[in-house]
Amino acid sequence: QVQLVESGGGLVQAGGSLGLSCAASGRTSSILSMRWFRQAPGKEREFVALITWSGKNTYYTDSVKGRFTISRDNAGNTVYLQMNSLEPEDTAVYYCCALLGATTQWGQGTQVTVSS
User: Fold this and answer.
1) pLDDT digits (tens, 9 = 90+) for 20-65
2) Residue 79 pairs with which residues in a beta bridge?
């Protein structure tokens, strides 16, 4: 079993920055990759970024490339999402997700609101 706890959401003005954290605990040895998703009001949940558990590979959805950075603190089993140049369209609940072989584990979500 893996537990995920997210933190770092909040309110920021357009053009500002926020950093999100996702702390993993439990059987972290079973984690293959970590992903960030987001869900805006009235919209489906969408993929934002991925990092392999080794930290060697990262992937981003086109709309955040060059603005968001996903990284991993190997020592502490924490994954981060640094978000720069935020836009009102980035407003959403952000979720971290661990891929565990054939299953996934989700965090509780953290709200990010970008004001114009």
Assistant:
1) 999 999 999 999 999 999 999 999 999 999 999 988 999 999 999 9
2) 22, 72
Beta strands in the chain (DSSP E): 2-7, 10-13, 18-26, 33-39, 46-52, 58-60, 68-73, 78-83, 92-100, 103-106, 110-115
What lies within 8 Å, CB to CB, of 90 at 6+ separation is 38, 64, 83, 112, 114
The β-bridge relationship of strands 103-106 and 110-115 is unpaired
Q: What angle do CA 69, 96, 111 make, to 5 degrees?
A: 85
CB 114 within 8 A of CB 107: no
- Other beta carbons less than 10 A from residue 11's beta carbon: 12
Note the pLDDT of residue 81: 98
